[in-house]
Design goal:
Length: 249
């Protein structure tokens, strides 16, 4: 069937979100949004992208991609962008040929209800154990593995001699404690092995940066802090991502 988006069809669609489907296994390989002929414009695309390669691979095998209209008559581009981003988050950008996760994906990312409640209505807690609170906002991503969370927390930081009096390190995102680690030892930045970070890049940092080795703390400690807010322990406008608590006792 000829895929002609006429003026009448375009008016009926309005702002819309669409999906490209591989007819061989019904998998979604691209999510997009737009108006008018946007959904079919990709069939004429000659760029060297994963999306175009997937389409050309289908055509070479004697198939055509199916284009599904997922939502239409959306109020504006803003609403279409929100729907597009939500679908990309649901499927996972690594399963698609989209180059990016979509507009607003960082503002409205997919996460569990537990994470959502922790982030938006956490109860505050006072830290009474000697600990470093480490904000990992730049490294954090929803759905990261336990290993990624640990390696994002353990290095690399500008911390002085008081680090040696800290028994615990807490991974903090959006002011909420995500995990608690018991510190075993401190090392120069990039001098210990990482599985999920580029070690060579870490080793290039200034010599005043440090990283620790440790393990997940006992449950009696974790249950006291995980999911609780420590945002009040960071000063307003504080630049350093690390705060030491109860280190002088």
């Amino acid at each position: 069937m000829q895929l002609d988006i006429t003026l009448d069809v375009a008016n009926a669609l309005g702002f819309y979100v669409y999906a490209y489907i591989d007819p061989r296994d019904e998998s979604v390989f691209y999510i997009g949004k737009g108006v008018g002929t946007r959904a079919t414009d990709h069939l004429l695309d000659k760029s060297e992208s994963k999306k175009v390669a997937r389409i050309n691979g289908l055509l070479a095998a004697g198939f055509e991609p199916r284009i599904d209209i997922v939502a239409h008559q959306l109020r504006d581009d803003l609403e279409a962008s929100r729907v597009e981003a939500a679908l990309i988050e649901l499927i996972g950008v690594d399963q698609l040929t989209n180059l990016v996760r979509g507009r607003f994906s960082t503002d409205y990312p997919r996460r569990s209800l537990v994470d959502f409640i922790m982030e938006h209505a956490p109860q505050s807690v006072e830290v009474t154990d000697p600990a470093l609170l480490i904000r990992i906002n730049r490294q954090f991503k929803y759905g990261m593995s336990a290993q990624e969370l640990y390696e994002s927390t353990r290095g690399i930081w500008v911390v002085g001699e008081r680090r040696n009096r800290a028994k615990f390190a807490m991974a903090v995102y959006a002011g909420v404690v995500l995990e608690v680690y018991e510190i075993e030892s401190w090392h120069r930045a990039g001098s210990t092995d990482y599985a999920t970070r580029v070690q060579a890049e870490l080793a290039k940092q200034e010599s005043k940066r440090w990283e620790f080795l440790g393990h997940v703390a006992f449950e009696s400690i974790r249950s006291r802090y995980i999911g609780r807010s420590v945002a009040h322990l960071f000063r307003a406008g504080q630049q350093s991502p690390v705060v030491g608590i109860a280190l002088d006792g």
